[in-house]
């Protein structure tokens, strides 16, 4: 049995370039699908957020127009409601990486508001990468890699093959021209060896112990890839 840490955004809004605070949080599928994969396999899950705040679901992510059907929306909502770990998260500053076998970062626009700048998250990412333990990061959550840069702008993730939410997908949901910056652009510039698949298609990349997924549909498959290594 493995101990899996889900590092989740604590943000309830995303500040756009005009100053508007767009309501957000974590994307439902990106928690529900991997959580189901890990718990059904018998692994224990702990949730951590900046400051230990209870994470909120981006309500848009539970709309049938986003999930594909009302039944899927209800299934994801049921997983979230049953996941007691979401109601009692650890504070990221209190996380001891030695206590966990896997670390997983769900996305949503929230990580662009907090995890992209959170130094506790940045230090955790550096330690888990160095440990060789599986590290899963999906959709917008690769924005958290920006917080791993040191005072010289260097990061241990430089040169790693990664994927994440594309500029085309951001445009498709109507935010590419409203955002202060785009996840794909910033993660490419770290620099990483960023690649992508078709818009909304399942696309995962594995490089050493780093497992990344392009979009919500890729979150469950990333967790399945990590299971193979446990």
How is this structure best summarized?
The protein is built from eight helices and eleven strands.
* Shape field: globular
**Which class do the helix and strand fractions yield?**
alpha/beta
Describe the largest sheet.
7 strands, mixed
Q: What is the alpha-carbon Rg in Å?
A: 16 Å
Question: What share of residues is helical?
Answer: 25-40%
CATH H-tier superfamily: Class I glutamine amidotransferase (GATase) domain
Could you tell me the number of beta strands? 11
Span from first to last CA? 9 Å
CATH architecture: 3-Layer(aba) Sandwich
Pattern of helices and strands: EEEHEHHEEHHEEHHEEEH
CATH topology, what is it called? Rossmann fold
Can you tell me the residue ranges where pLDDT is under 50 for at least 5 consecutive residues?
A: none
Strand order of the biggest β-sheet: 5-4-1-6-7-11-10
Continuous helix count: 8
Overall number of structural domains: 1
Q: Kindly provide the name of the CATH class.
A: Alpha Beta
Mean pLDDT figure: 97
How much of the sequence lies in strands comes to 15-25%
In words, what does this structure look like?
The termini are close together. The radius of gyration is 16 Å and the shape is globular. It has a single domain (3-229), classed as Class I glutamine amidotransferase (GATase) domain (Rossmann fold), CATH 3.40.50.880. It is of the alpha/beta class. It has eight helices and eleven strands. The mean pLDDT is 97. β2 (13-15) and β3 (21-23) form a beta hairpin. α1 (28-40) packs across α3 and α1 runs parallel beside α8 (219-229). The strands form three sheets. A seven-stranded mixed sheet has the order 5-4-1-6-7-11-10, sandwiched between helices. A two-stranded antiparallel ribbon has the order 2-3. Strands 8-9 form a two-stranded parallel ribbon. The chain is 30% helix and 17% strand.
